[in-house]
Amino acid sequence: MEIKWNKLIANIAVWTVAEITLNAIGLDTIADYSEFLTSKHQTIVIEQAIAHQ
């Protein structure tokens, strides 16, 4: 599996900025919920990839 470094770094930067911003204005719960939704999607994608091997 090839890692797309540009996309990975961009995603990390966006999540970091979002986390800091939402935490500063007291809406960190929204950031945590969006991380939960994203990780749930990633789990499904991983499960599908394993099933198709």
Brief summary of the model shown:
The chain has helices at about 5-25, 30-50. It has one domain.
Commentary on this structure:
The structure is a single chain. The protein is mainly alpha-helical and 53 residues long. The protein has one domain. The chain is 83% helix and 0% strand. The protein has helices at 5-24, 28-51. The radius of gyration is 14 Å and the shape is flat.
Cα end-to-end separation: 13 Å
- Helix percent band: over 70%
DSSP, total strands: 0
Using only C-alpha atoms, the radius of gyration works out to 14 Å
Low-confidence stretches: none
Inertia-based shape: flat
- Strand content bin: under 5%
Major sheet characteristics? none
Instruction: Report the order of strands and helices.
Output: HH
Compute the number of helices: 2
The average pLDDT value, as a whole number, equals 75
Total discrete domains = 1
Topology, please?
Elements: H1 5-24, H2 28-51
List keywords for this structure.
0% strand; single chain; flat; 2 helices; mainly alpha; 53 residues
